[in-house]
Amino acid sequence: MVHGDVLVKSNRLIALDTYEMVLAGDLVQHIQLPGQFVHVKIGEGSTHMLRRPFSIADYNPETNEFVLVYKLIGEGTTWLSQLRMGDSLDVLGPLGNGFQIQGIQKQRILVVGGGVGVPPLYNLVKQLSAHNQVTAILGYQSIDSVFYEEEFNKWADVHIATDDGSYGSKGFVTDVINQLNLSVDQYFSCGPLGMLRSVQNNMEGYEGFLSVEERMGCGVGACFACVCPAKNEKGYVKICQDGPVFDAREVTL
User: Fold this and answer.
1) Same domain? 207 vs 117
2) Same domain for 124 and 27?
3) What is the distance between the alpha carbons of residues 7 and 115, in angstroms, rounded to a whole number?
4) Res. 146: pLDDT tops 60
5) Residues making up the binding site
6) Is residue 252, in this structure, part of any structural domain at all?
7) Binding site residues for FAD, as ranges?
8) On the chain, which terminus has fewer CB atoms closer than 10 Å, C or N?
């Protein structure tokens, strides 16, 4: 884990209220798995006192660059959207346990993402596609909210679902799962809690891993602000420390 300033290389609007920020810093060398996150200090002029967690969408150890994709939802992310090339950002990370993918080969993989749960799945798909057959189902509210479709298409067979039917299939990601009737060895998913619960129920009996998106306090497991019911001796897990990625059979959403 590294704490320090990283350099903003770019910060651009890529869909409705959705930004992609490219950052450069030595913490890239410490990223071990797709699905890890960073804790970002929201800067001057903001009333936010706590850091904000953002999943790492992609990273490149050769260039020391990593990518965050975030949605405008309040004062903190609005401040973030105003940063420009050459600005610095106080970041703590990488944090959390990501997707354990070592040794996965010649598998039929299903990846399911929704909204701001799509970004942490991008680097996962890139890595899995090297030795596996990957199908990605991505859900958005409408056509204006769709992002990274072209990027995912480079690595996977992509299917889009929108709530209003303005693009791709109308409905939820689970509707597309049922329509495709895929033969799957294991699955990976990230998105809103309701979506994850539906995917977990729909894919019961399959080996799967869920990345749980949640508000956090400390980000390192000290404050108990982000807990999730689990099937262990404690009865809960800390999303920031034990996760955000969990075996789908071990958590209750």
Assistant:
1) yes
2) no
3) 26
4) yes
5) 52-55, 76-77, 218, 223, 226, 240
6) no
7) 52-55, 76-77
8) N
